[in-house]
Amino acid sequence: MRVADFLRQAYVGSMLIALERLASPRRILSVCAALVLAAILSACGESGMQKAEARGEITLGRSDTAVVVENRAGRPALNVRITIDAGDAGLFFAVLPTMETAERRTIPFQMFRTEDGSLFSAADGVPKEVRLEGKDALNNDYLVTMPWERGR
After folding, report:
1. Where in the chain is the domain with CATH 2.60.40.1260?
2. Which residue, 144, 135, 68, 71, is CA-closest to 103?
3. pLDDT tens digits for 56-115?
4. Against a cut of 0.85, is the pTM above it?
5. Cα(111)–Cα(19) distance, rounded to whole angstroms?
6. Which of 64, 72, 108, 119 has its CA 20 to 30 A from that of 41?
7. CB 116 within 8 A of CB 94
């Protein structure tokens, strides 16, 4: 074996491998392509997962005497406005300036008022729906609508 041939070979473990075979252009290109593809796929997968986890939700429920709001968004909610659409009787609303993370609030019907200050009464008629609008600390918008069901 000549000196030039010896310099073109490398030891990997106990195997003697020619450098041309170890680092062929086709092999380098395929490894680089695989690494780039893996990086792109992992970046896309993480961003979608992060959005899903970060977004969360604000839930809306109702009992016979109150509306129940729960912040599951993972961050504080700001300017949460709950509106009861009572059809011909008008829109009755209540505003929660802030809601902490994982906070649950029960808002009695007596807290809902129209723009002119009239109080809501469930006995005056059957409302159509309850709507919630708000933002979280990252300025994400939340809009939840729940139909008003009789006997609930």
Report:
1. 56-147
2. 71
3. 789 999 988 999 999 998 899 999 999 999 988 899 999 999 999 999 999 999 999 999
4. no
5. 80
6. 72
7. no
92 burial via Cβ count (<10 Å: 0-12, 13-18, 19+): buried
**For residue 104, what are its two tokens?**
């649950």
Taking the C-alpha atoms of residue 19 and residue 65, their distance in angstroms, rounded to an integer, is 80
Distances (CA, A) of 42 to 29, 32, 35, 39, 111: 20, 15, 11, 5, 48
CATH architecture of the domain with residue range 56-147: Sandwich (2.60)
Q: 74 near 101, Cβ under 8 Å?
A: yes
